[in-house]
Amino acid sequence: MTSDKPNLSGGYVCPVPLSETSTIQLAHGGGGRQSQRLMEQVFLPLFDNPELRRLHDGALLEVGSRRVAFTTDSYVCGRCFFRAAISVTWPSMARLTTWRCASRPTRAVRGFILEEGLPIDTLVSITESMQRAAQAAGVCVVTGDTKVVDRGKGDGVFINTAGLGLVPEGVEIRPDRACPGDKVLISGEIAAHGIAILSVREGLGFETV
Question: Residue 162: which residues within 8 A CB-CB, separation 6 or more?
Answer without folding.
Answer: 70, 71, 72, 73, 108, 109
